[in-house]
Amino acid sequence: MPDPRRAEGKRHQLSVVLGIATGATLCDMRGYKAIAAWAKDLKSRARECFGCRRENKKYVVPSESIIRDVLVRVDPVKLNLALQQWNATFATEDQSLAIDGKTMRNAVDEAGRQTHIMSVVGHETTLCITRKKSARYP
């Protein structure tokens, strides 16, 4: 999928920004500020899994302004085609995948953050391809 941003000054790959925005949205984050806060709360391992770049031995997540800039500029038709291609590549035994996120009602960690879970399940195989857990402040 083509990156709608100018070549100069790109600090984060398009796939990283879109992946983080998707994960945050599936965990019920609404708006650029909430998505950026969700990204900021990601632990080092999650940041690495999303493909965040390293700076001074730490993985750096995109800022709110970068997230907003990418989401405003991305072509929804091209994004849909890219997602269809991803689905065809990674879900070879399934015609489609179900992606679902939930907020766990009474699951609060020691810092007072609510737990959110996200999972991807194949329709035909009914296999859980992946699941992730995150937490945010109420």
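[next item in queue]
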Amino acid sequence: MDPVAALNEIATLLERERASRYRSKAFRSAAEAAADLSDEILRDPTRLRRIAGIGDSSLAVIGQAMAGQVPDYLLELRSRYDVPTVGEVRAALKGDLHAHSDWSDGLASIDLMVQAARDLGHEYLALTDHSPRLRVANGLSPGRLREQLAVVAGMSDEGFTLLSGIEVDIFDDGALDQEPALLDELDIVVASAHSKLRMESPAMTRRLVAAASDPRVDVLGHVTGRLVEGARGTRPPSTFDARAVFEACAASGVAVEINSRPERQDPPDDLLALALEIGCLFSIDSDAHAPGQLSLLDYGAARAEAAGVPAERIVTTWPLARLREWTGRAR
């Protein structure tokens, strides 16, 4: 087995499991280090140990792969991988409007995220790194975002489009954490609340309604902010008048995000049903922070299908031309 392919597959499976970022990144680094090495070096453990980025675990993987075996650790991870049933909604998805790179708090470069999206058959992916206020996530200042736009502009071709975007933080009063003129330049704006999630219901309602009514917003991200499992523990959902928020989304043509991360499962089933009743659009997004997490769309699609959300109401099932018509709508 090709050792670089084995190392990258291990990293991808660890990312999908949302394992420690250090574990998955270590295998990505080892794959990068091994990519330019000759077979002679790859077969020599003594010389491999001196290569920066290759540790004991990756050394064992390389050794077994060069011996013609599927590495033991890869077999273990494959055995844990629960192959999802591909339903009608998942088969209809053409892209993803919420993903992060190492420009903010993601684990991988933009080009690795793009390659993973291509491998999944995406027609498009929106790069939505965080905005300035989220300093813990290395949020992008206006200057850094402009630099990123120049990079994004060179990442598309005939078969795939990398959309410019941002996950912009929603201030307490509903304003957005980025220069308005710069937001106007972006293809996709996902607006999410990341702080003061326990605000009193009337204040949180005003905050989310204001964001959903902003003409620059396309998607309202992980609307309740809840966490139901995972390494970060659990967190209750924010309280607000969901009908008022979803009516604002419907009036502005803003999509309610069905966040595919298993630790979020946001919005909850009852709110998903309410948004469907009110007539909202939806965006099934991975909220990926690593290449292997782009496939988390499987979970979001399964939730949408179970809730009876028609594919026609999910903007990420639309081809790029129609998606652009929607983002360019009069608001």
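[queue empty]
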